[in-house]
Protein 1
Amino acid sequence: MKRFIVASIVTLLVVPGFGAGAGHCFNPADLQHLKKTLRCPGCDLSDAGLNGLNLSHARLVGANLTGANLSGANLGGVTLSNADLTRADLTGANLSAARLRRADLEGADISGAVLDHADLSGANLTHAKLCKTKGANAIMRGADLSGASLDSALLEHISLRGANLSSADFSHANITNADLSGANLSGANISGANLSGTTWQDGVSCKESSVGICKK
């Protein structure tokens, strides 16, 4: 019995997909299915090269896109609700009117992307990069999130410097320790949003317990 248990453990450690450090890449069949039908809910596209593709109005609910390259892709109207986009490259992508409810975008690079009227309700954008810079701090282009829905989203430690956030909904979002310097917040809804430690439009840091308003 002891020999059987030991053998079973060894088998699990050597079978691909099991054990620490096991390699992993996307499923080529899933990629081909997406390109053919623009429908691939729950599919595995981790680390896939999707840059420059036209995926407008594709349905990728719950898909795994961790580390995927989507730079310059047309994702207008795409459905990515509950998708995993951690560390994904979305630089310069068109995400206008995209559905990203409860999507995980932690550490993703969304600099230069267009996200106007996108639905990011409940999404996780912690440490996501949303602006391009040149040199140490000079802003080249901020993200366009005008009219976007970010209610209850996690926006901790992100830079929205120079971003267009006009008429965006940040109600009850966690925007602690973020950078909003130079951002356009005209008509934006920040009711109930946690702004503690966040750098406001004028470069002044919001005091702790800043909720719904930046206390300076």
Protein 2
Amino acid sequence: MNNAKIPATGAQYARLGLTISNGVINAIDGHFNLGEMQQILGDEKLVENATAKIVAKLLAIEIDPWADQKKKIERFYKSNFNHIIDWSTTTLPEYDKKFPRLEYVHAGFNCKRYITAYKKKFGDDKVSSNSYSQNPDNAIDTQQDRPKGNYCFAWAGTIEPDTEHLNKSYDDFCNDGNDYMIPKEGIIAAFRERFETGNMLDVKGLTRFHALDSDGYALGMLCYDYDRFNVCLGLRVNRYPVHGPRQLKLSKTA
């Protein structure tokens, strides 16, 4: 179907949508009472996604599980950097329900570039004044390896660090074979969360990065004074119940 030389018209798509909706109505007519229908409509996104999967299977269409995330990322980069993303040059990680949030990392943007855009969007006072927060690049001595060029990663998308990794010190997780957020990835995740929802990450806890400064202190991030993004340092052996790393999933070819 996707090999047709002449694109389908808007009217044809509208007619197909009406036909599908009529089929759905005919199939469910009389099967739900008022209360049951209100419950179903209480999560319209769930119904929309389920319907899309059924229709895609019926019409032999392959659905991109990252489609919604990619649209949000495109808006984020266009709004804050006037940058248009070319997805054809970037390999995406395989979709995993454990890591439903996707992020795009621009190889040409360092931590400072993201921090500058963050301050432009939310105000200079929304980033802590310490040197680690103002220019995290200068604080990084070593960090977990990443692909060269632009790349994407998936993560849990939660406000607080991964529950399964709480109370772990840097020494606990640095050599366990998993990929965890490094400073630039944490900045991007926190920036986009605040951009889209107004919420901040690490309101109660602290994200421990897979990165060290020149003195061997582990870098991390947290929400400071309720509304300021903050990059901080801590002893690599420290363990706290609400602190921990955020695990990532990188593309297989990354």
